């Protein structure tokens, strides 16, 4: 802080204390002062006596100015409470807690113009000239050290840091020598921030690691505590999402990083960052240390209970489409690569059965070689066993990956849904929104299972096709003759099926919406004896859903049956032409059987590829439906609002205009009024006059058309929504409790 004039603050900003209370405060303050810590520990006994005689106790209420740049003249120590440092525009730049120093001799921030009480605060103050007289190099260094931006959180955090560091050092020194020797070769290419506020430092590090550059001071202003709940809320303001997991040491290798860990010690818990694993060590960045470390399993498990929070960026894109799934699918590329490898191996094994069958028919049966038959049978058995094992493994990996994708994608969708404005939900039926959310499973199934395997099988079908051409070129063209017919069937059936699928979805949403609304409003239904009407209405809606579903199923069944006929017709053509070739001795019986088996492995994937086009149409419908949610703008972008201090409750409406939709009349026209803190206000009026609307505007559930709404002088348009709504108690007309047991 810049040095101000050596004048006493206005007496109006100092609370009046009677003599008895003042003496009590003075005694408590003398006991609270850190005499064994810098800078007081560097004073001689005579100097400590002088400091004791010259100190003054002051109390300040919320919002009162304690120090101003233009007046200054004092050095302060906080006994209880919190203070905020403000810039020339009166915006908060940092918060200091009990145990922190501030005043003329320190420069916490070059742009700090004032210090005000953030809550009721008691401070000890001295005239700055006294400390200048007592000054020596150590004390000067202490005051200048407080200007370090990394130490913005104040001396209380420094004390906490010293205690934690001491505890961790003690734990480390008590470890076996083998454990100590494993902690070496400090990694230096990861972001690292030193601070006693470990949660803020860790969020800063992971944000920088994910190319989201933020400053520690900004994170500290957003963070309201060190609990996981506070860290998760602040992470969302940084555009990050934290996902809690309970894992053991062996499972760490399969996770994506970075992640946050809650580090336990005998004195206090703190947050650390892990950037991943190297060998058998975990890369740990502890804000209470000086650098990143490689820690062995024994060291980590002595300070960690297995809980971690994976950190990911909240993806932002202009319009929702299939590319929205790309980052999530790419994240599990290793597992999906294993699936592709298993599928490739299965396709190779698929070549064995036709070839071995050909050998048995053409060689073994003709030569009546039982020994060779046994060998071929064992070979076929081994192929069957390997196919079963690989198929099971592929299905397991598929299912495991799909469930993880479901969790990740569903969490992103639900997070965005919760950030949408109230107007979005009021303009849509509940069942319609629920049905759209459920469409996510269809898209995920298509991307990770259907499309992946069909495309792979179709690509490998080229190998089978080459082998078929090797056997007989004319017979191969006969086998492929039905493919144009399949393509024609798909082109005709797809638009019809897509229309009925869309209609089925709409009718399902209608019936589900009415069911949800009826159950939710069952009190009104029973009070008006409307059960027969509700039952008749739901039965009619459900009957429409059944009819459209039947038409969609009929269209799909007709298409499938025609496809089955074409498949059987293809088999008939192959046998008919193949038999003629065998009779003409252009093909052996074994080759014909092998060719028939190979043709199934060629036409099957190609037919499924045609069917994939039908599935794609349905998936595109699902994308459009989910896009209605994900393309809707949220209430506010994370981290864009001003985090409010504790509110007194002064409310000001200034010429507020509001309407529910652009084409309707304004509900509120130029409303202006003031409410003082502590006042009880009742608002009366006819139904629809805007009484409930006022409370919703105060919570910023709606956006006003013009005017201003202020709380304690803060414009609601620029406030952080969470910090606003968490300080407003609301009892709604039709409130409900969420089940916490499910």
From TrEMBL:
Pfam families registered for this protein in UniProt: ABC_membrane, ABC_tran, Peptidase_C39
Domain Cyclic nucleotide-binding: 43-116
InterPro entries named in the record: ABC1_TM_dom (IPR011527), ABC1_TM_sf (IPR036640), ABC_transporter-like_ATP-bd (IPR003439), cNMP-bd_dom (IPR000595), cNMP-bd_dom_sf (IPR018490), P-loop_NTPase (IPR027417), Peptidase_C39 (IPR005074), RmlC-like_jellyroll (IPR014710)
UniProt keyword annotations, A-Z: Hydrolase, Membrane, Protease, Thiol protease, Transmembrane, Transmembrane helix
Localisation per UniProt entry: Cell membrane
Domain Peptidase C39: 193-311
Keyword Zinc attached: no
The keyword Membrane is assigned to this record: yes
TM segment ranges: 339-361, 373-397, 446-471, 477-497
SUPFAM superfamilies per UniProt: ABC transporter transmembrane region, cAMP-binding domain-like, P-loop containing nucleoside triphosphate hydrolases
One GO term of the biological process aspect: proteolysis
GO MF entries: ABC-type transporter activity; ATP binding; ATP hydrolysis activity; ATPase-coupled lipid transmembrane transporter activity; cysteine-type peptidase activity
Record protein name field: Cyclic nucleotide-binding protein
């Amino acid at each position: 802080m810049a040095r101000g004039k050596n004048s006493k603050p206005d007496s109006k900003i100092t609370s009046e204390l009677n003599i008895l209370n003042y003496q009590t405060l003075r005694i408590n303050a003398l006991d609270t002062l850190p005499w064994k810590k810098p800078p007081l520990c560097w004073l001689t006994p005579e100097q400590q006596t002088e400091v004791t005689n010259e100190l003054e106790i002051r109390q300040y209420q919320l919002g009162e100015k304690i120090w101003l740049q233009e007046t200054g003249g004092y050095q302060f120590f906080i006994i209880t409470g919190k203070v905020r440092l403000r810039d020339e525009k009166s915006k908060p730049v940092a918060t200091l807690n009990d145990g922190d120093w501030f005043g003329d001799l320190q420069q916490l921030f070059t742009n700090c113009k004032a210090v005000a009480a953030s809550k009721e605060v008691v401070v000890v103050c001295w005239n700055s000239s006294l400390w200048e007289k007592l000054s020596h190099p150590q004390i000067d260094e202490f005051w200048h050290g407080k200007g370090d931006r990394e130490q913005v959180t104040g001396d209380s955090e420094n004390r906490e840091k010293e205690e934690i560091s001491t505890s961790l050092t003690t734990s480390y020194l008590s470890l076996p020598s083998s454990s100590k020797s494993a902690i070496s070769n400090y990694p230096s290419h990861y972001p690292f921030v030193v601070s006693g506020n470990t949660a803020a430092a860790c969020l800063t590090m992971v944000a920088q690691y994910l190319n989201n550059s933020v400053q520690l001071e900004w994170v500290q202003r957003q963070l309201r505590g060190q609990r996981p709940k506070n860290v998760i809320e602040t992470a969302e303001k940084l555009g990050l999402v934290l996902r809690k997991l309970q894992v053991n040491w062996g499972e760490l290798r399969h996770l994506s990083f970075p992640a946050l860990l809650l580090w336990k010690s005998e004195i206090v818990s703190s947050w650390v960052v892990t950037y991943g694993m190297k060998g058998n060590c975990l890369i740990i960045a502890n804000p209470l240390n000086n650098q990143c470390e490689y820690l062995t399993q024994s060291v980590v498990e002595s300070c960690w209970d297995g809980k971690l929070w994976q950190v990911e960026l909240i993806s932002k894109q202009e319009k929702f489409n299939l590319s929205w799934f790309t980052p999530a699918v790419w994240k599990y590329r290793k597992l999906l690569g294993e699936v592709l490898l298993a599928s490739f191996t299965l396709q190779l094994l698929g070549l064995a059965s036709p070839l071995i069958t050909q050998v048995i028919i053409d060689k073994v049966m003709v030569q009546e070689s039982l020994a060779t038959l046994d060998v071929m049978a064992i070979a076929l058995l081994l192929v069957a066993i390997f196919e079963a094992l690989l198929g099971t493994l592929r299905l397991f990996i598929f299912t495991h990956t799909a469930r993880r994708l479901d969790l990740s994608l569903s969490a992103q969708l639900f997070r965005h849904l919760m950030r949408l404005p109230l107007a979005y939900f009021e303009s849509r039926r509940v069942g319609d929104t629920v049905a759209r959310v459920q469409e996510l499973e269809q898209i995920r199934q298509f991307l990770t299972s259907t499309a992946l395997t069909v495309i792979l099988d179709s690509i490998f079908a080229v190998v089978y096709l080459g082998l078929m051409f090797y056997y007989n070129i004319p017979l191969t063209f006969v086998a492929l003759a039905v493919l144009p017919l399949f393509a024609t069937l798909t082109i005709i059936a797809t638009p019809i099926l897509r229309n009925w699928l869309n209609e089925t979805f709409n009718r399902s949403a209608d019936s589900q919406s009415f069911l949800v609304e009826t159950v939710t409003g069952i009190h009104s239904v029973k009070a008006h004896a409307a059960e027969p009407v509700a039952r008749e209405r739901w039965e009619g809606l459900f009957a429409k859903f059944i009819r459209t579903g039947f038409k969609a199923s009929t269209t799909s069944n007709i298409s499938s049956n025609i496809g089955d006929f074409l498949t059987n017709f293809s088999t008939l053509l192959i046998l008919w032409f193949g038999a003629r070739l065998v009779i003409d001795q252009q093909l052996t019986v074994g080759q014909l059987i092998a060719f028939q088996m190979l043709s199934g492995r060629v036409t099957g994937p190609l037919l499924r590829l045609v069917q994939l086009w039908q599935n794609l149409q349905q998936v595109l419908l699902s994308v459009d439906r989910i896009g209605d949610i994900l393309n809707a703008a949220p209430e506010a972008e994370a981290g864009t609002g001003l985090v409010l201090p504790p509110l007194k409750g002064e409310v000001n409406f200034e010429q507020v205009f509001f309407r529910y939709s652009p084409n309707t009349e304004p509900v509120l026209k130029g409303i202006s009024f003031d409410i003082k803190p502590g006042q009880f206000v009742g608002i009366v009026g006819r139904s629809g006059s805007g009484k409930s609307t006022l409370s919703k505007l105060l919570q910023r559930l709606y956006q006003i058309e013009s005017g201003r709404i202020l709380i304690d002088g803060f414009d609601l348009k620029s406030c952080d929504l969470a910090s606003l709504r968490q300080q407003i108690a609301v009892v709604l007309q039709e409130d409900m409790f969420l089940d916490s047991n499910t």
